[in-house]
Amino acid sequence: MSDKLLMDVGQHDKPEIRAQGPWSDLALHTIGWKAFQDLCAQVAEETLRRPVQIFREAQDGGQDAVFAVENTGGSLDATIQCKHSSDPGRRLKLTDLRDEIESVKSLVALGQADTYVLMTSMSVDAPTAVKIRQALRAAGVKKPHVLGKQYLVLAIRRSARLRAMVPQIYGLGDLSAILDQRMIEQTRALLDQWIPKLNRYVPTEAHRRAVRALTDHGVVLLLGNPSSGKSTIGAILSTVATDEPNVTVLKLESPGEFSRTWQPHDKQRFFWIDDAFGSNVVRNDFVQDWTSAFVKMEAAITRGNRFLLTSRRHIYEAAKQGLGQRNLSYFRDGTAVVNVGALTPEERAQILYNHIAFGEQSSEWKASVKDDLADVAEVDEFLPASPSGWEIRFSLRG
Predict the structure, then answer these.
(1) Across-strand partners of 117?
(2) Are 143 and 209 part of one and the same domain?
(3) Fewest beta carbons less than 10 Å away: which of 65, 149, 303, 311?
(4) Is 168 a residue whose pLDDT tops 50?
(5) 128-159: buried (b, 16+ CB within 10 Å) or exposed (e) per residue?
(6) Which of 290, 312, 339 is the last residue of a domain?
């Protein structure tokens, strides 16, 4: 976990989060360095179609992220370095790379920077990009790349999957540039309650696994204890689904409601069923209904429909016993089941940082508590949506 992440919260007043003109000029300067690092990694992973590993601040050795490059001699690490600026008008300069050159040379010597990708939220002029590539080659890099804001915005516009991985970007631009009028109205209705919260939302590994399950299998079951964030992930992914052409999101209350309303000719529907097996205790009627609904669900998935279910962990465990072999195959083998509550220390730190950095507290209060935040983020029971989590925050305020 980066102590710098949590120590910085007293350094800034609440940033102004707003769209900066049309979609072609996303307000990337407002999302913060860590969110920008995640965005860069997801852009690279989506573009390259290969895993990208993120490294944390102060422990990255000059590498914000890496990916593998295959060549005749085997596999080599390629380096991604991110440069974020909170200045919306700033342009990348050659001098911005001055502090990186020695690290680049060391990485080249270790065989980790034959390919070096510099990604930035700043605009990049062509002559500047040429000079930076020349400087990187002089440091030993064989394949230097300089990717600025314009490249990132184009990548975001092209990929609905990328937007699902990094949902904060929905609060940064004009949706009318990528969505038709029907989708604008539907998306905006769903987004209205989430846009003010997107700058605080941290796409965790559970979020990313849910996106992959939906992509690979057409269905995901989010499991977690109360206040672990499963319904938040469900709501955001359901909202993001409306971004895709011809998709209609339907929030249902029970498996019986799905069975009664689904038609075999229905396509491109996204069904969201919260507390799918009961809200407080397992509902035996839901379990019985799912035994027949799962057959219809499999047929619906083959026709391009997708399903997101949530459940408290203990309720699903009880329901699973009743379902037995009649359970959905992806749930039986766990390939479409995501446990939401297991946050890493880094994820807890980022969640805590976002809630305070984008919160309503005064800069004086933020400065007064910053020394305690690293300890708070280490508390295993701390969840931002849980009563205990809020008690910790209010005790800090006191």
Answers:
(1) 80, 145
(2) no
(3) 303
(4) yes
(5) bbeebbebbeebebeebbbbbbebbbebbbee
(6) 339
Helices vs. strands in the chain: H and E counts, helices first = 18, 10
pTM of the model: 0.61
Range of the domain at 149: 18-154
> For residues 82 and 120, is the Cβ–Cβ distance under 8 A?
yes
269 plus 142 within the same structural domain: no
- The residues, ordered by sequence, that sit 6+ positions from 184 with a Cβ below 8 Å of its Cβ are 175, 176
Q: What mean pLDDT do residues 83-112 have? A: 89
How far is it, in rounded angstroms, from Cα 37 to Cα 40? 5
82-91, 156-165, 377-386, range with greatest mean pLDDT: 82-91
Structural domain includes residue 398: no
- The confidence score (pLDDT) of residue 126 equals 92
Tell me, yes or no, whether 357 lies in a domain. no
Give the contacts of 207 (CB within 8 A, at least 6 positions apart). 165, 233, 236, 237
Whether 119 contacts 155, CB under 8 Å: no
Q: Which of 118, 138, 154 is the last residue of a domain?
A: 154
More confident residue, 270 or 3: 270
Q: What DSSP character marks residue 123?
A: B
**44 and 108 part of one domain:** yes
Q: How far apart are CA 13 and CA 364, in angstroms?
A: 9
| pLDDT surpasses 90 at 298 | yes
Does residue 140 sit within a domain? Answer: yes
Residues 120, 225, single domain; the answer is no
Compute the average pLDDT of residues 366-391.
65
Confidence of residue 252 (pLDDT cuts 50, 70, 90): confident
Separation of CA 125 from chain center: 29
